[in-house]
Amino acid sequence: MNSRSRRLQPAVDQAHQHTEDVLAQLATQQQQLARAEHQLGELERYRNEYAAAEEGAVSVTALLNRQQFIARIDQAIAQQAAEIDRQHRRLDQVRDRWKQAHARESALDSVVAQHQEHERRAEERREQAEIDERMQHRRPR
Predict the structure, then answer these.
(1) What is the C-alpha separation between 22 and 102, in angstroms, rounded?
(2) In sequence order, which residues have a C-beta less than 8 Å from that of residue 87 and are 6 or more positions away?
(3) What are the tens digits of pLDDT across the range 17-36?
(4) What is the pTM of this model?
(5) What's the chain look like in SS3?
């Protein structure tokens, strides 16, 4: 006869695997966020360096081109900041999924542990009953 704890083991294994999978997704999401933040820093650094560079005597056309280029860099910075916000939201979602998966895994582990303890106590009672029965048969009457 299969014990309850053994019958629950596939569910425990599946919950553990799901938790590990979500944990891997969490790590990936953290890396993506770090890359996006790094890219934003690079864009901001480049914009500051470009805006600070002096070109000496420039024509009106060159000045307009420079301003348009800085405006495009500013637009890229705004887009990257929006991407970082999106990455933060995604990270929060994955973190919540991990917390839920971990809680489910912990709950299943707890249920299995309770069943194992119950099974252990039942086995001890059965063994004690066998010992008691053997002792009764040994006693002279």
Answers:
(1) 9
(2) 29, 32, 33, 36
(3) 999 999 999 999 999 999 99
(4) 0.75
(5) CCCHHHHHHHHHHHHHHHHHHHHHHHHHHHHHHHHHHHHHHHHHHHHHHHHHCCCCCCCHHHHHHHHHHHHHHHHHHHHHHHHHHHHHHHHHHHHHHHHHHHHHHHHHHHHHHHHHHHHHHHHHHHHHHHHHHHHHHHCCC
